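Intended use. Records like the one below are meant for learning the mapping from a protein sequence to its folded structure. Do not use them to infer anything beyond what is encoded.
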Amino acid sequence: MKYKHPSNCLPIIYAMRMASIWLIVCGLPTIVDLVIMLILKDTNIGNVASTVLPIFLSLVLLLLGYDIFAFIVSCIYYRKDGIKYAFRMIDTTTKLRQYMVQDISTPVRGRKAQLIAYDLSVGILTAKRFNRMLRHDYVDIHRNRITVWVRTPNNHKTDQIFDQMKFDVQTNLSSRYSDYMFSGFVHDVNYYIMSASRKK
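Structure written out for the chain above:
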């Protein structure tokens, strides 16, 4: 197996999603504070705005700096297709994680509602453990290949959850990227790995 774990670049690029969201969240108050400070500079409101503004401005510059850094990393990693495939990776990885999240109220698919209390608590614990691992999952998309990494704890019950989802995950990705031919998942130490190559 050529790719036994996701590239260290992927978490950096993926984090650009949250950095951009927070950039917007912090950017709006910064603009509001700036406007208030300019219009009401001689009032108490203006003084408060001028005090808070440096804090928001520092956060905005920090987040903007990270976005620029992540953008450079994506351009190096994906080369000339940098930003296009970086956004595809972020979007597809997010959707995959959301698709795989286990409902804590019905943690294991296919289980009947008439579970005894012990089995239910074990199922909820297993689902929580499975959900925590989703942040390590990635769908790495390139021009000629796609690689999917799904990390599960070294636990038989969490493996069972994913075993029930393998075909659905493959079908979901195959329908979304019909130009690629997907192989099945292969288990390699910490990850289930699925690769795809572009159809000729």
